Amino acid sequence: MLKIGIDAMGGDFAPEVAIEGAVMALDRIDAESRIVLFGDEKRIRELLAQHGCAAERFDIVATTEVIEMGDHPAKAFIGKPDSSITVGFNHLAEGKIDGFASAGSTGAMLVGSMQVIKPIEGVIRPVISSAIPVVKNRRALLLDVGLNVDAKPEVLAQYGLLGSIYAESVLGIERPRVALLNIGEEEAKGNAQVKATFELLKADKRINFVGNVESSYIFTGKVADVVVADGFVGNTILKMAEALYRINDRLGGGKSRLKSFLRPLLGRISEKLYYQSDFWDAMNYESVGGTPVIGINAPVMIGHGGSSAKAICSMICSMEREIKADLAAKLRKALRA
Amino acid sequence: MLKIGIDAMGGDFAPEVAIEGAVMALDRIDAESRIVLFGDEKRIRELLAQHGCAAERFDIVATTEVIEMGDHPAKAFIGKPDSSITVGFNHLAEGKIDGFASAGSTGAMLVGSMQVIKPIEGVIRPVISSAIPVVKNRRALLLDVGLNVDAKPEVLAQYGLLGSIYAESVLGIERPRVALLNIGEEEAKGNAQVKATFELLKADKRINFVGNVESSYIFTGKVADVVVADGFVGNTILKMAEALYRINDRLGGGKSRLKSFLRPLLGRISEKLYYQSDFWDAMNYESVGGTPVIGINAPVMIGHGGSSAKAICSMICSMEREIKADLAAKLRKALRA
Q1: What is the pLDDT of residue B275?
Q2: ipTM
Q3: Which of A211, A301, B62, B297 is most buried by its number of CB atoms within 10 A?
Q4: What is the pTM of this model?
């Protein structure tokens, strides 16, 4: 039985939406998978009752503390030993659960990832990534989306390998095309950091390096399945994509009521307009769910602070996929080779 | 009389669309302004005749050579002394025209900007910028969009001043809010380059520095009128915006026939959907026109290689605004102070 650990107290709207998302996920995960909720047991049971959901469908690990957004991540991780995040990481380290996800403090999640789960031997710097939507219902992987800035070329180049293995094993993309984000396609383009990285990626025979990709092409999916970028640049891209999604949404796209009303109609009038909805929906972080931490010894996923129930549900499903893929084992094998 | 120099031979679809755009611009510029076309005189006259436009409405400077996209910019600029670009820059340097714009070789345009027009004394590095659309029909300025990568902090900080003066004098924004593109709002965020730049911008009393801005906010216009970024990051943002515009367009937004048909209807149903069209239309490079080179002694604007007639027309109108603003004089004054 596969055990998916979820922080019931994590996120701006926890525990309410965390529980709602967990209940939604019950029908989407395998029958053999089980969700383990970490948090205030009384509150969790109350909320499950409100959803008419038997508490027995979950494992509950009672915790009494919560790491708040304002807390200093490293201090709180130690200073609140009975917090849902700290207890969750300890369970993960002890093998009582197979993965741990939270929409709570990103800082505390990174502390747990680095200090409790720890980087896999040979990984210079673990990295956070995001599945980005590409047209035609495919996904590509962008990494780093913000963990390491001023990354050395050897760190960036290793993202290529980490991302390639993730894309293959978790996203199911065969022989993923790895590209380096740059401001031109030609080999000599870019800043000093990417020029040096280009050489290292080109020399790495373990990956299918296809060269530079410009930001204009990452959402088309035509060039690359894995896009390597420094954390500063990757974070900028991710936030911009989210913002344009929100603008598009607020201005009448996405989930607006009017759009929901118009959608079947538009779908009938034009296949293109229908796909447009899908593209922008996929751009929504709600369908992406969470940001996996890649390069550590067990699956950890960090959700958006403002996660909705749908986002939590997506995160649980992504986590299940990642656990099944046994990413850490594959990374260890690749790094030993 | 104000004289706007246009390279009739520049761009993938020149001279046809360049001439078409120039004809479109005739009704949009002031009666006292005059467009000066540089290129193959015979071809220009033929095309003007096809548009039913009297050749007398333009000044024509006959040139016999063209710098092609495949040419080495610096070599071609010298080696083709009678090219439309080289002759255009010479006219600009001699004061025979007040500004020069081309959708042709970006490299050759930069060579002319740097070697013929030259940086204003005190400008460390001239910069290229782009007006980016923000919601509610306003514009913000992003710079650098790709001229200098690995820019030193003092270079980045000076973009703040250059951009501020441009936004005030050309875009008409009073006391423009200048922000530094970063991956967090807090002062201590970012890479080494932006941290050092932050300090310099903060200390510059000539500008209205409002701190860091994340890419999520640059298109909302809520935080900043001028966004300072390294050329690598700014170029990535610009290309991504263009790409998402194209995806939105191809998937049914922008100028599609269906959209044109639906637009008045949508406008009636929902003001929001109507604004959505406007936002995405403004995202189109066609309405932006060209990329001004800021920090040199005379107005120069570089158009998109694939410029349509509408884009050329917008570039001519932007150029007229820039000439009227007398940007170079204002920059000289600010840098002397």
Answers
A1: 42
A2: 0.84
A3: A301
A4: 0.86
